[in-house]
Amino acid sequence: MKLSHISLALSGLLLLAYCSAGKKNEESISMRSHVVVEQEREEELSRLRADWSGYDFQKTDLAQLPAYFEPKIVSFIEKLKPLTSTESNTAIKTLLDSASQNKEIYTYFIETFGNYLYDANSVLRNDAYYAAVLEHAVASPWMDPDKKTTYRNMLDLVRKNMPGMHVADFAFINKDGAQRRFYELNGEPRLLILYDPVCAPCSEVIQQVAKSQSLATWVDHGTLKVIAVSPVGDLRHWQAYQTNLPRKWVNGFDVSGTIVQERLFDLKMFPTFYLIDEGNHVVLKDTDLQEVLSYMQFNSKQ
């Protein structure tokens, strides 16, 4: 009996030591991961400063603008990724402060940032970064009133439905002709797809989404709801397109045209994807299928 008690006591101590060691190991890994992330951020900040340190924007040969500056701007954007939003905004505005020494160079920078950060086909597209660029542009003395108005309108649009914000609510009719509102369809995360039923490239992308086995599984298990809404086009075209969408998706049409008329969403292209959480907050803005799958696979319990 005594040996049995001693064995049990030793087993308990060993288990406690194992659990304690495991916990310390997890904390150590977490701490090392945090240190690595911090080191990466500091390294990128140092590189960003070094890239433009001491550069004289006043003496630039304007004929060499694209050849010299475009690769540097692309490199600059890529180095922003590990930074916090505050750090990236500061880095962008600091660079534009320097570029504003010369009107032609400053204008070139604003336009080139737009090409890479806002163009629908750019792999570097990023609304948060572009908002910082637009904020600088609308405050710049180099911009004429008409250009400032254009950039101010773009800034208002870019700021809508940013990650963390409540997504814009809107009304639509479903395939049965019943009036619905987006906020009514809560309870689980929702993938919102804004599409044009007569757009051939849109149809190809939507079919890729429809064929995703992971997505179908989440929909079947109630882990995700897919809501596809057409904010443009003719009602008859939308009705004819319904057979192309999975039966378990919610298919809607904005009869009133409110989405486009009131610019509720920044529709750079069709289809446009948003991932929305149960509380109607934007999780992913203007995203793609792969990013949605990655997020859901990491966060889904199914």
UniProtKB/TrEMBL annotation:
Pfam families with a match to the protein in the record: DUF5106
InterPro entries assigned: DUF5106, Thioredoxin-like_sf
Chain ranges of the DUF5106 domain: 52-161
Protein name: DUF5106 domain-containing protein
Species name: Sphingobacterium suaedae
